[in-house]
Each structure stands twice: as C-alpha cells, then as structure tokens.
Design a protein that fits this description.
The chain has about 140 residues and is mainly β. Helices cover about 10% and strands about 40% of the residues. Strand 5 and strand 6 (about 95-100) form a beta hairpin. Bound molecules: zinc ion.
C-alpha cells in the first residue's frame, strides 16, 4: 500500500478494498481526499497515506435526475433520482459521494448536518467492476 501512487486510480483501488484513503502532506499536515501527489498549500511532495474513519456530516447535496450513462444504466432517471452530496469528514476534508438511505423524492426532508457513515458499493464483475463511495445516515 505504501508504494501506491497518490492518484485517482489508487483511490479507486482502495475503495474496492473498502478503504477510504487520502494523502497527507508530511510537511504541513494538509489532507487530500482523493489523494494528490503535490500539496496545494505548501507545494510539498512528501505525501503519506491516511485512512479516513468514514464518518462525517452532510454539508451540501443535490438530487440528480439526469445522471451520467453508468447511473442511467443502474436505473436512475427522472422518476428515480439519486442524491449526490458533499460530506464533511471528521478529519476535516470534504468528499463528494452518493448519499443513500434518504428520500430523494422529498429533498426537503434531507437535512444538512445529518451524521453519515461511509459505505462501499461494488458493481460489475472482474475488469468491469467499480466501487462507488456512498454515505448513509448513521
Ligand atoms: Zn503541505
């Protein structure tokens, strides 16, 4: 794991292993999820992997009725929208993820600040398999 490059491919590989990983700058301590190879605060390039606990709160969200092709394939459309949210992790970083377990047909019932827990949704098989990061109320 230490040898993995700090990029989206590694991030997704960790997700497939049920791990939410970010990179931490060894110089200034800034945290990046998904991981970045270069610190945007101090431009340091000494990064280390940091595992997130997967707990956070809903910071913002939007209900998406017309999603990307892979979501349409999963059966999401105008009648079945899904929720995409910004989650503020306990570690202080914000990640974008799918929000599960909320009533997407009644967005007014979804509350900012709701405590959430990370979940890893595995779809497809073999080469075509992907893992989506999702959060649901804890
Ligand atoms: Zn830094």
């Amino acid at each position: 794991m230490e040898g993995r490059p700090f990029n989206d491919i590694s991030y997704e590989r960790f997700l497939s292993e049920d791990k939410l990983m970010g990179s931490r700058c060894q110089k200034c301590g800034s945290l990046f999820v998904p991981p970045r190879p270069i610190c945007t605060k101090c431009y340091g390039s000494e990064m280390e992997w940091a595992e997130m606990k997967g707990k956070g709160r809903l910071a913002a969200f939007t209900c998406i009725a017309i999603g990307p092709p892979f979501m349409i394939k999963e059966g999401y459309d105008r009648k079945h929208p899904y929720v995409c949210g910004v989650v503020e992790l306990e570690e202080g970083v914000r990640v974008v993820a799918r929000i599960e377990g909320v009533d997407e047909s009644k967005p007014e019932t979804i509350e900012i600040g709701t405590p959430l827990k990370a979940e890893f949704l595995h779809t497809g098989e073999g080469e075509a398999s992907t893992t989506f990061l999702a959060f649901r109320p804890s």
